[in-house]
Amino acid sequence: MDTKKSKKLLIVIIIAAVLLIAGIVTAVIIIMGAETDIVKGTHSHSAAIPALGARIDAKDGFVQVAESDTYKLYYYEPQFSIRLENKKTGAVLDSTVSDEKDDGRNNASWTGYMKSGIVINAIIGTLNTYQVDVNTVKTDIETYSIENGIYAKLSFGGKYNFGLGVEIKLDGDDLTVRVPDGSIYENTEGTYISTVSLFPFLGYTYLDEQDGYMLVPDGNGALIYLDNKEGRYITGFSGLIYGTDDGMTNRTAVSTLWEHYETVTSANSVIAPVFGMAHLDDKLAYLGIVESGDERCSIEVVPNGVMVDYNRCFARFLLRDVYVQPLNQSNSGTVPAVEQDRMHSDLTVRYRLLSEDNANYSGMANSYREYLLNSGRLIKQDTSYRTRVDLLGSDREAFLMGTTAVTMTTAAQAGDILDELRTLGVSSVLSVFKGWQSGGVYDVPVTSFSADGCIGGNSALKNFIKTQAEAGNTVYLYDDALSVNADTHATTYNVMKMVNKRTFRNETHGQVYDTFYYLMPGRSGSDLAHLTKDLVSAGIGNIALSGITEKLFSYSSKGSYYSRTDTMDIYEDAVNAAAGSVSLITETPNAYLWKYSDALLDMPLSSSDYLYLDREIPFLSMVFKGTVPTYSEYVNFEANKRENFLKMVESGMYPSFYVAAEDSSKLIYTNSSDLYSLEYTSYRDTIAEYDRALRELAAKTADAHIILHETTDSGLVKVTYDNGVTVYVNFAGSEISEDGVTVGALSYIIKGGE
After folding, report:
1. 508 near 516, Cβ under 8 Å?
2. Is residue 254 predicted with pLDDT exceeding 80?
């Protein structure tokens, strides 16, 4: 044999052997990687993940990456898309619009949006107008196998040069999607990530192809049906969790009458970080819970016809924004500016997957309650029935060069009111005393126990609280820990400045005090600590907290920027400390404070009544009933009192009244002039009537949970408790007979629980 040919053959044999060995080793690593989660697949838009090895079960290009007892999770890397399949029924939830369901009527931007599992808004310079998705922007994706899921690194190229990592897992029958804060990078100065929308089309439906609805966290709760909206709406629901960021957004002037009376009621803030989708035909649903990053995340619930003909709901995280920066003190000129730093928090959404009989809004509420209790985000409290009767002590009206007291209820009169209610059968009351402090209800902040002399001073107030406790009533002293009145307190160093370094002003158009400011979060915390300590020393252990319970903002201080995350942490620490020393009840609290609250006050019974909402439901009431007592907004100021009463019956919520010993006409020249109906004698009989009816219902439901809320074909609302009690409510103007019961017009019937 020729020597040269022999050498060539030897080389070929050696190469073949090396390749064979490499192939065997690679195969072994791939197989091991599926079990040990140590091997990554690195590629740009490859159709399969080598690291998954034996797990590969491709369907329409999707690869199975995880499995639970009930669901399979599939992944399609080119579109960074996932699919959830119910193993029993075969029903699926897709996160991107398939070619089959693409109606072909959308522009390139919307097509890219619909077919990408992640959509980013980018800021370049000061323009926050750039859409970034995996279809329209060059994207490198590296996908790793992890325990029961995947971890993907996404790098967006071109002019963006930023990226992030996304962890996707099945946690039992929950799907969790998380962007670790440390995985986010921005490598080009002046180019930033503004918002991140994770799986914005998860569970989408096209027009009316599926019977079902989306859950909207507005008010107590609402639904948008998945029917064909026929293009009637140009917008859907978009609500920033925990309300508007007053540190970033200048307040819009409120509509007023004669510059003193607000004529438009503000929309509800989103206090619960949830949203949901239910496919009733397929008996498949999910409840989305924003677990982290909620302090700067909006809930988007959009019906078909708004830009595209698809129903969708999702969480949209705001990492960085553009704001308006004044050029001078007079605000005569402004320029756009970008936040110095982005939000630093993991971005996490947990999807509670529901099927069969649980695939509805009742199942969502039950699942949310279970989640809150198991995670410690809600603590079981004493839910014994008590009617809430709040009392106004004093306010101020202008007088010569200052103000003079307007006394509405002294401590002695307050005692007489609650004593008389006891004789009428109102055996236990929760009462919040407002305007107890020196200077009246708008002399804020309150930092010590100093009762207004016009209501009787410290001794009379302490005696009132002690006497009522002995009679079975609980009196709480009201504290707005957020606001500061510049007419009664120094504000030089203590007030909140917005991100643009301008002092935030809360214009109230009051008769006496027309402008209030927000305290710096740290000052709110220290004031609450001082007040708590002083009250405990005085033998008073009950505080009704407001202000910081429902507001959250970014701010600047001494040249540094602080985010809503910073404010939330300070508020939570302050409330936690106070709750360790006193009984704390909170006014319209945001979700992160629920676990510190012995009762929840001023919870809405209705929605904001947006046109695109199809139906109101008592979602939050279903979550809280039997776990923590919740109290309605004041009955006094409700136009339709009968409907309002029936909503309390439907939801299991307790009633609230705001009264005073004196006539409301005395308040005409005070900041409380909008309280047009307060006189106790006008509501005495109504309070007793509500108490009798709702106390009877509470005795039968006790600590039971609402497990099913439904509306029958005839329009009767049926509420089922887990102790066997069923409540039928008829909101109609005529009698309804169904389910073996007859319920009169605008009435209700309780079955079971005898």
Report:
1. yes
2. no
Q: Which of 247, 396, 227, 218 is nearest to 304 (CA)?
A: 227
DSSP E strand stretches across 503-573: 506-507, 515-518, 542-546, 555-557, 560-562
In a 3-state reduction of DSSP, which class is residue 738? strand
Taking every pair of Cα atoms in the chain, the longest distance, rounded to a whole number of angstroms, is: 123
* Token pair 């007419």 in the structure block, residue: 487
Selection from 351, 336, 227 nearest residue 287 by Cα? 351
Could you please report the per-residue DSSP string of 380-446? -------EEEEEE-EEEEEETTEEEEEES--HHHHHHHHHHHHHTT---EEEEEES-BTT-TTS---
251 versus 175: which is more confidently predicted? Answer: 175
Give per-residue pLDDT as tens, 154-210. 999 999 999 999 999 999 999 999 999 999 999 999 999 999 999 999 999 999 999
Residues 618, 650: Cα–Cα separation, whole Å: 8
Give the three-class secondary structure for 329: coil
Q: Where are the domains of the chain?
A: 3-36, 41-198
Is residue 340 exposed (0-12), middle (13-18) or buried (19+ Cβ within 10 Å)? exposed
Give CA–CA dist 455/213, Å, rounded: 52
Structure confidence by residue, pLDDT tens digits, 525-571: 999 999 999 999 999 999 999 999 999 999 999 989 999 999 999 99
Which own/partner pairs from 32-41 qualify as long-range (CB within 8 Å, at least 24 positions apart)? 33/145, 34/145, 37/144, 37/145, 37/146, 37/147, 39/144, 39/145, 40/142, 40/143, 40/144, 40/145, 41/142, 41/143, 41/144, 41/145
Q: Structure tokens of 537?
A: 């020393």
- Please confirm whether the linkage preceding 445 is cis (ω < 30° from 0): yes
Question: What would the pLDDT profile of 717-745 be if each residue is shown by its tens digit?
Answer: 999 999 999 999 999 999 999 989 999 99
CB 672 within 8 A of CB 663: no
Q: In 3D, which of 109, 119, 106, 130 has the Cα closest to residue 310?
A: 106
Are 316 and 195 within 8 A, CB to CB? yes
Cβ–Cβ under 8 Å, residues 247 and 504: yes
Q: Residue 517, SS3?
A: strand
Per-residue DSSP letter, 214? E
3-state secondary structure 586-645: EECCCHHHHHHCCCEEEECCCCCCCCCCCEECCHHHHHHCCCCCEEEEEHHHCCCHHHHH
In sign, the C-alpha dihedral spanning 325, 327, 332, 334 is negative
Which of these, 55, 18, 61, 58, lies nearest to 33 by C-alpha position?
A: 55
DSSP string, 270-303: B-S-EEEEEETTTTEEEEEEEEESGGGEEEEEE-
Could you tell me how far CA 583 lies from the centroid of its own chain? 24
- Asked if 315 and 297 touch (Cβ cutoff 8 Å), the reply is yes
**For residue 680, which of 655, 659, 664, 656 has the smallest C-alpha distance?**
659
**Distance (Å, rounded) from C-alpha 514 to C-alpha 505?**
10
Amino acid at residue number 77? E
- Of 518, 522, 526, the C-alpha closest to 497 is 518
Q: CA 611, CA 658: separation in Å to the nearest integer?
A: 31
